[in-house]
Amino acid sequence: MTRTTFDEQLATLRHRLLAMASAADNMVGLAMQALIEQDVELAEQVIANDDTIDGLDLEIETECMRLLALQAPVARDLHLVGTALKAITDLERIGDHAVDIAKVARKLSRDSFYKPLVDLPKMASAVRQMLRDAMTSFVNHDLELVDKVVSDDDEVDTMFHRIRDELHAVMRRDPDLVVQASYLLFVAHYLERIADHVVNIAERVYYVETGELAQLAKTHKTAS
Amino acid sequence: MAALERTALMDICAAAVLIVDSKGIVLDANLEARQLLIGAGSPLVGRTLLEVTLSGEVEQLWNTCRAGQAVRNVEVEGLSSNANLIVSMAPIGRSGSGHTDPERVIVVIRDISELRRLETIRRDFVANVSHELRTPLASIRAMAETLQDGALEDPSVARRFLGTIVTETERLSRIAADLLILSDAESQRPDKELFNLSPLLKEVLARSQPQAERASIRLTSTVADGLIVFANPDQMEQVVVNLVDNALKYTPGGGSVSVEAAAQGEEAVVHVRDTGIGILSTDLPRIFERFYRVDKARSRQSGGTGLGLSIVKHIVEAHSGRVTVTSEYNHGSEFTFALALYWDGRSAGDPGGLGSGMESSAE
Questions:
Q1: Chain B partners within 8 Å of A23 (Cβ)
Q2: Is residue A126 within 8 angstroms of chain B, CB to CB?
Q3: Which CATH number goes with the domain that contains A173?
Q4: How much is the pLDDT for B262?
Q5: In terms of residue numbers, what domain contains A101?
């Protein structure tokens, strides 16, 4: 097989990876919209959409394995294939968390919220911006943006802690709200996890560009 | 059309225009596209539509267009998660039968984020005004009704209720007054005169000293002399009062607030620093919005109207100055405003001599 077709295959791989990232990002957006607007139909749609992401996951993995077996890529090409293999797992998990959020949206569709949801949408918007920045850094080979993603994750963690404290206060104050507040706490947790997956992806972008496997985030904080 | 004219025509468009080939690769892009789409400045030509928009939705629309269906004004999310884009696409040339499989597709993308943002601000403003007015009104009404229902006979309760009614009425008056100040600042050009900002600053700080002492906050200042500006003194006083007042309100006891004013180049620059609770960077872009509150419960308790910073921003901008903020969450904030300086006390020039051009400095 000639180099040109191999290049084309790599270009296709990059393209599919981006398409999967965009689909995952879209799912998170729709799941949050379903939650905020208490739209059950939209929530169902997100839950059904998960198959698309899972499909892309399998497709890209198969493609990567084929490239590895038939082309034995080296250097940057190998980094790209390795990155794709890892990143699809993170993207697939992001899709799963979007489904989790959609399920909460379905559960809370008839509740009246204890206050208009402001902080969770804000947090979601910050998390999605991180994902877009990771994608942009991938497309533009921009390592500065990788740093931004990593530092933005700290801010998302701060937002998570703030939301968690507030929800705890709500639960202590009003036992009738325990169910609702605990579900909203889950949403905050899912968003925080999504941000961690985005950091993983950003680290892979760093790897494609430099060949160095760096643990860029000092600590991978999960909900604590 | 000659190539030069085509480029000029594309670049003059206020929308992003892309020409995409049958494989989805960008053949040509105009100036706006290079600004609106991925990584301002990086080349778009040769990349795929997905790469330059990062949007699977846009790619799907392109497929729709290639299948022969027109795409007219479809709203999609933009590159940043707060951006809203309106996308239209039209096929050019044809390689398949009928309208399917065009050789190229022309893609036009308009950024309507600013429009959406303004819409949201307007909607929030109306909702906020009614909410801000309703809260004190509801509590006044509840107190008055309880008094009517017999609490009037119990002097100690009655006195407490009347106290609350007065407090809430004061809050309503403050909101009404702030709304008036704000609408003045927004609608009228300020009446400007040449005056010395330094004594005004010192006076405001002296007046704030008791408030700072009550709250056990160290209020310090370094104010350079002779900061002559061309501005409205009452409005400038309002700006300083609001900033210092905010700094004191959001700084816990034991903390400090420092005010520094000096000539920097051609500007009088005033910094108000505090060691207070700080502001998250996600809130920072919004704190100058009317009624925007970072922590709603807390700031209402502290008696704020939620309008102080919008007033600051409008006044300073009406004076062609600028106001900025930096903050570190849990460590403190620094608000800075700068106005054109007309005489800084060092140059021996006659401030009046700088006359005629100044009027036009209002926007």
A1: 56
A2: yes
A3: 1.20.58.220
A4: 92
A5: 3-223
